[in-house]
Design brief:
Layout: E1 10-16, H1 23-35, H2 42-58, H3 69-81, E2 87-94, E3 98-105, H4 111-130, E4 142-145, H5 149-165, H6 179-188
Helix pairs in contact: 1-2, 3-4
């Protein structure tokens, strides 16, 4: 799907580690969904695929290099580096094998440039830390345009509650690698 992007647009962006969602799994799901009469139209098929991907991501497949604090710190720094300049962050969460971000684009900065800069910078440094080379992130990213205040609130809650849903913590503010933790920490200061 093409990325919809324009000045001031609000997006939920998800990007994953290269080993987090094997192409063979996606191909198998596509076949299963295509053969299942319950998913007769494109919208139902897309929704079913989206739900399967979410469950798979949260199950923590792959090496989950983002679990390593020194790698998660890199991603956190990349997300926060141009907040207020190239984009405005509303919420973010670094999961063991993927990252969620809710952001508003600023004028003249394309969504692909924003995500590309995060991925390029963090991949180079993460590979140095890990003593390896090769693909760190999956090639593309998924984005959804936020279309209403209700959609925005739902997405913010989804992003910040993702570690709770995945069984990584009890409350969103307990997950050190997310905006809920950052806000809680600032309130304490």
């Amino acid at each position: 799907m093409p990325h919809r992007d324009h000045d001031g647009a609000v997006h939920h962006v998800t990007f994953r580690l290269a080993d987090s969602l094997p192409a063979s799994v996606v191909a198998r799901w596509k076949e299963e969904i295509a053969d299942d009469p319950a998913f007769r139209d494109d919208r139902a098929r897309q929704q079913q695929m989206y739900e399967r991907v979410q469950r798979f991501e949260d199950a923590g497949h792959g090496k989950c290099q983002l679990r390593r604090p020194e790698i998660a710190v890199l991603v956190r720094e990349a997300l926060l580096r141009f907040d207020g300049e190239r984009y405005r962050l509303a919420a973010w969460c670094i999961m063991p094998n993927h990252v969620h971000v809710l952001l508003r684009q600023t004028q003249g900065v394309r969504l692909g440039e924003i995500v590309g800069s995060w991925k390029k910078w963090t991949a180079r440094r993460a590979n140095q830390i890990l003593g390896r080379d090769g693909r760190f992130w999956m090639r593309d990213f998924r984005d959804r345009a936020i279309r209403s205040a209700r959609h925005w609130a739902f997405t913010l809650h989804y992003i910040e509650s993702n570690p709770v849903k995945a069984g990584l913590c009890r409350r969103p503010e307990d997950w050190r690698w997310g905006s809920a933790w950052e806000r809680a920490r600032k309130r304490q200061c």
